[in-house]
Design a protein that fits this description.
The protein is mainly α. It has one domain. It has three helices and no strands. Helix 1 packs antiparallel against helix 2. The longest helix has 22 residues. The two termini are 13 Å apart.
Length: 58
């Protein structure tokens, strides 16, 4: 279940970043870059910050 939540949050943040960069400021692309970087590093290390917080909240 947590994998679905992580994917949904990541996708939502990426899409939000794109929309805000087109309508407000290109600086919002940093948000998408940050999310993408975290997805990439979690594929190598197995550590996902959002998964950590989801497990801590239980």
């Amino acid at each position: 279940m947590s994998e679905k939540i992580i994917r949904a949050v990541a996708g939502t943040l990426i899409l939000t970043s794109i929309i805000l960069s087109l309508t407000v400021s290109l600086k919002w692309l940093w948000l998408g870059g940050f999310v993408g970087f975290n997805l990439l590093q979690s594929s190598f290390t197995g550590f996902c910050p959002l998964e950590y917080f989801l497990k801590k909240g239980k």
